[in-house]
Amino acid sequence: MTLQDIPQFQADALAAVAAAKTPDDVEGVRIKFLGRNGSLTALMKGLRDVPPADKPAFGQALNALRAAFTEALEARKEAVAGEGAAHEAFDFSMPGNWRGAGSLHPLTLVTEEVTRIFAQMGFTVADGPDIETEFNNFDALNTAKHHPSRDERDTFWLGPELLLRTQTSPVQIRTMLARKPPVRIINPGRCYRRDTTDATHSANFHQIEGLFVDVKPVSLADLKSTLAHFAREMMGPQIQVRFRPHFFPFTEPSVEVDFSCHVCKGKGCAVCKQSGWIEILGAGIVDTRVFRHVGYDPECYGYAFGMGVERIAMIKYGVTDLRHLYTNDLRYLRSFA
Q1: Extents of the domains making up the chain
Q2: Which site in 10, 47, 159, 331 is 20 to 30 Å from 304, CA atoms measured?
Q3: Under DSSP, is residue 41 helix (H, G, I), strand (E, B) or coil?
Q4: In whole angstroms, how large is the CA radius of gyration of the chain?
């Protein structure tokens, strides 16, 4: 080969590199030109037979050829690297495996259903942070300074005045601080308490609370009719509702609300502990001292209520152990689809 033939040789070599489609093709081109018996290797070895006067120019041209070829080869190797891996990792001729559609978690199903029911009655969804102030979580809700719920054994304190909220009621305080009546909200969210995890308790759980405040008269009868409608929509038209006197720091009067057992229809079974009733939520008329804490006129009228999402899910779907809802066992969770 003469010095004038090198440009054509280089063009052919670079064309061969460009035509390589897979890593195996690139390796084949490398061996063809740079292998032990490769054509470019043979040219380099033949440099000793070139006349001494032509050796400097011939050697310089071969070095430039080798550098251009090697650079093009490396670039093409990187460009086609994914092609070979894709073909090796996945056979496009194989039939696909249908893994099935996903499904919502039972706690999500309950939350969405509760939200839908109260939305029909004019309630909007409010939200707030998991990290709360002592004022919003306790003081504004009329919780006494010596109340056991403030103790470190019951509450996750993050500092002198910051904590992980023990209930979703602080969202109600935030809402009232931000707007004037009328207020009609529900606020689903996570809560945190220092409970030992067992079949019915968890340190991390979910609540949905509601608040209605107006300057017009609102009575306990209004609260009862609202919750009775919710019960029938959530559990079925046959459900009965029972109200029992109770005490909550932020409502007066306060009640606990029971639904008739949907399993035994009120006759008594293991689910309702033979009573025929299942405790669902707490409620009451908002205490005037709460209104004072948020700057509302104490003459305002309002009611509030709250329920545990896990408790409703356990009752509605027959879950016997709260921990089943958090094990992430897909076989179990798919049963709610």
Answers
A1: 3-89, 106-336
A2: 159
A3: helix
A4: 37
Give the global pTM.
Answer: 0.67
Phi-psi region of 114 (alpha: psi -120 to 50; beta: other; left: phi over 0): alpha
Q: What is the mean predicted confidence (pLDDT) over 236-247?
A: 91
Q: Please, which residues bridge with residue 164 across strands? A: 131
72-116 pLDDT, tens per residue? Answer: 888 888 888 765 554 556 677 878 777 777 778 899 999 999 999
CA atoms within 13 A on the CB side of 138: 19
Distance (Å, rounded) from C-alpha 251 to C-alpha 169?
12
**What kind of architecture, by CATH, is found in domain 106-336?**
2-Layer Sandwich (3.30)
Cis before 182 (ω within 30): yes
CA atoms of 323 and 315, how far apart (whole Å): 14
Which residues, 6+ apart, have CB-to-CB distance to 246 below 8 Å? 254, 255, 256, 282, 284
The SS3 of residue 308 is strand
**What are the φ and ψ backbone dihedral angles of 180, each rounded to 5 degrees?**
-95, 160
How do beta strands 183-192 and 124-125 pair? parallel
Strands (E), the chain: 124-125, 131-133, 162-164, 183-192, 204-214, 241-248, 251-260, 277-286, 301-308
* pLDDT, tens digit (0-9, with 9 covering 90-100), for 280-291: 899 999 999 999
**Secondary structure (DSSP) of 137-205:** HTGGGT--TT-GGGSTTTS-B-SSSEEE-SSSHHHHHHHHHH-PSPEEEEEEEEEE--PPPSSS--SEE
